[in-house]
Amino acid sequence: MSFVEYGDTIKDGDTAIVFLGHESMFPVKVQHGTVTQTKYGVIRHSTDLIGKKYGSKVTCSKGGWVFILHPTPELWTMNLPHRTQILYSTDISIITMMLELKPGSIVCESGTGSGSLSHALIRTVAPTGHLYTVEFHQQRAEKAREEFREHGLEHLVTVTNQDVCKNGFGVSNIADAVFLDIPSPWEAIGHAKSALKAEGGRICSFSPCIEQVQRTCLAMEEYGFTEINTLEILLRVYNVRTISLQIPDLGKAAEDNSSTGFDSSNPSHQGSLCADLQQGTVQFKSGVPLREVVGHTGYLTFATKS
Amino acid sequence: AMEGGPSVRIREGDCAVLKRDEVFKAVSVLRRRKIIFEKQWFYLDNAIGHIYGTTFEVTSGGNLQPKQEVEETTTETKEAGTDNRNIVDDGKSQKLTHDDIKALKDKGIKGQEIVQQLIENSTTFRDKTEFAQDKYIKKKKKKYEAVITIVKPSTRILSTMYYAREPGKINHLRYDTLAQMLTLGNIHAGNKMIVVETCAGLVLGAVMERMGGYGSIIQMYPGGGPVRAATSCFGFPKPFFDNLHEFPLSKVQSLLSGTFTTETLPADSEDNSLVEEESNGLSEEKRTSLQETEEEPATEAPMESNPTEEQDTMDINAEDVEFKENKEKENKENVREKQIKQWERRKKLKEAAALLREKNADGLIVASKFHPTPLLLSLLEFVAPSRPFVVYCQYKEPLLDCYTKLRERGGVINLKLSETWLRNYQVLPDRSHPKLTMSGGGGYLLSGITVVLEKGKFDSSNSEALKMEEPSSKRCKLQDLPC
């Protein structure tokens, strides 16, 4: 297993995803002799996981079962240990496309944070590209390095522990793209420009507040970036349900069934109408939006150095 | 390097994209070829050798000249009004007439100077607010300063271009939806992907870009051959096509049932793609019918050169006979070539069939005009367990059906029906707000992950997990949200 290469069977040392049910899952480090507790009982790694096919159903000690999934950056994003607020796959997808990332791309990122975006970036630029990621928080930088090593990605990423606004990305004239998710991105635009290749490249900055976006746009213009464009992407998820709606009683049934017509004061009559109503339903499938959805993550500002 | 792609400089024969403001057009860079873009005509000859991203001005005679970075001429009097209480629309504020402006243009005066003249001859300009002046200049610049940027094609640019120019050809797949598909599908180097699309080859191109020439792609096509008009706009290097396979959808059932042979090929894919390229400007309906009519003669083609047809020619007039004879001669010459081609196509088809038979694809991407349910139910058979799949549909309802049928089939988890909204912003000092218009619809996605499909019915001992998968209204709490 690796986050950049599919494997068929679960091996010792792999990071696998234990899938319990609807959006309920967690990552597990596969190790000989280790056990993992789930609400369906115990999973014994040596016998239940190692050597099994990814995507298999694994029966736990209490008879319940789970699926074991191959890790992907998207599953990792849904399950990683948060050290910071993270970027989710919806924003990541548009960032990746708008930065024009592909195998071989050299990308600079700051901050590394919890590594949610980092994993997706590495996946896209592998096997010949590289990610230079800068994190000013020492502990987070260390933790990210450790994770990349565990996930078999260390050859594709360099983690630098410094302040990007003061010291930049530690590289110059080599990047195809730069991504910023820091509180004051406008202070890093100059560094971003010098990290990008002389012949040009793309930049993206993620900020939750419009005031941050305004200062960033001004800085981008000042440094000669073109095609400055700010956008926002929102995900809407739909639950698929079978809905049944009642047919209203307009007195039709009563008129058909009884010569005396509709009489609401007659209790026995009402009873028969209710029975009719219960049968009088229409069923259909619907995609129902969630009751509460994420309305804002951040503004994404893109620009080109040319 | 495999992912090298086109160079940083514009070369003859390159696929490039012209950009003016937010408008794009894909072109081939050829010498002495007149290009018409945004009501202007010009030649690309002078652009050759320049770096991609260079902005050009169109000069007289249709030549392109790199635009010099000019200091803005607005350094003079910064005079402006504070409100519009005294500005009256009498239609006479511009002292230059239409004829005057045309005369300036005909003289070959630079757009920049025309804009300056328009400002000087506007009686209300000085009374306008600073912001209104800014807006006025921007509007006039857009009209009179003809600048064109030549950029390298990419999924970003081509998907934006197609959505704006020809949304019907890509089933209204908006670029942010395409971006979602690539991420949800975990498209990356080394994958073995199955792609079904009727989006002019745009989705295929996007997948190819993300795979960078590593791994393999099997494109499943309807009719006579895959459409790759948009794919060719990417300008991929040749090696990218080495591991691009194609397989006709009409053969899927026989492949699954084990009766597949390469004896009857669908219509010649090459002829078909040619027709498609030529019919770029045609409507969807016309294209489809062309595709269908193309099928018949193509399969019959080798027969035409059969000499037993001689008798028929007797009744036809001499001209026709001569024409037909010439054609037959030509055909005879082509027969061997055609047979070689047929043989090569059979070989490729066998290769694609063998790849599919392994039933270990790393993902399935569907974005077509067809109903997604039958496609998914059949094609998921070719996908390995624990791999993502993504289906696009312009409409939500077919995906509701697909969702239900996939649940009944089993072998899939984490099914998700979703849509993205995209909002663009104007960000200017003291004038920031969402753009006036946004796209009403960019389609819907159904995504999920394959798991080992157990042929027997699920044991009911742990139906809780299954129930958990079916979201109920009671469980619709905030912590269930993706973020």
From TrEMBL, chain A:
Gene Ontology biological-process annotations: tRNA methylation
Localisation per UniProt entry: Nucleus
Domain tRNA (adenine(58)-N(1))-methyltransferase catalytic subunit TRM61 C-terminal intervals: 64-305
Swiss-Prot/TrEMBL catalytic activity: an adenosine in mRNA + S-adenosyl-L-methionine = an N(1)-methyladenosine in mRNA + S-adenosyl-L-homocysteine + H(+)
Keywords: Acetylation, Methyltransferase, Nucleus, S-adenosyl-L-methionine, Transferase, tRNA processing
Keyword Transferase tagged: yes
Protein name: tRNA (adenine(58)-N(1))-methyltransferase catalytic subunit TRMT61A
This enzyme's EC code(s): 2.1.1.220
Function: Catalytic subunit of tRNA (adenine-N(1)-)-methyltransferase, which catalyzes the formation of N(1)-methyladenine at position 58 (m1A58) in initiator methionyl-tRNA. Catalytic subunit of mRNA N(1)-methyltransferase complex, which mediates methylation of adenosine residues at the N(1) position of a small subset of mRNAs: N(1) methylation takes place in tRNA T-loop-like structures of mRNAs and is only present at low stoichiometries.
GO cellular component labels: nucleus; tRNA (m1A) methyltransferase complex
Signal is among the record's keywords: no
Molecular function, one GO term: tRNA (adenine(58)-N1)-methyltransferase activity
SUPFAM superfamilies: S-adenosyl-L-methionine-dependent methyltransferases (SSF53335)
Binding positions for S-adenosyl-L-methionine per the UniProt entry: S114, G115, S116, L117, E135, D163, D181
Subunit structure: Heterotetramer; composed of two copies of TRMT6 and two copies of TRMT61A.
From TrEMBL, chain B:
Composition bias, Acidic residues: 268-279
GO biological process terms held by the UniProt record: tRNA methylation
Subcellular location: Nucleus
UniProt GO cellular component terms: nucleus; tRNA (m1A) methyltransferase complex
Pfam families, alphabetized: Gcd10p (PF04189)
Region (Disordered): 62-92, 263-315
Listed GO MF terms: methyltransferase activity
Coiled-coil residues: 318-346
Principal subcellular localisation of the protein: nucleus
Superkingdom in the source lineage: Eukaryota
Compositional bias per record (Basic and acidic residues), positions renumbered to this chain: 75-92
Keywords in alphabetical order: Coiled coil, Methyltransferase, Nucleus, Transferase, tRNA processing
Family membership noted in the UniProt record: Belongs to the TRM6/GCD10 family.
Name this polypeptide is given: tRNA (adenine(58)-N(1))-methyltransferase non-catalytic subunit TRM6
Organism encoding this protein: Nicator chloris
GN (gene name): Trmt6
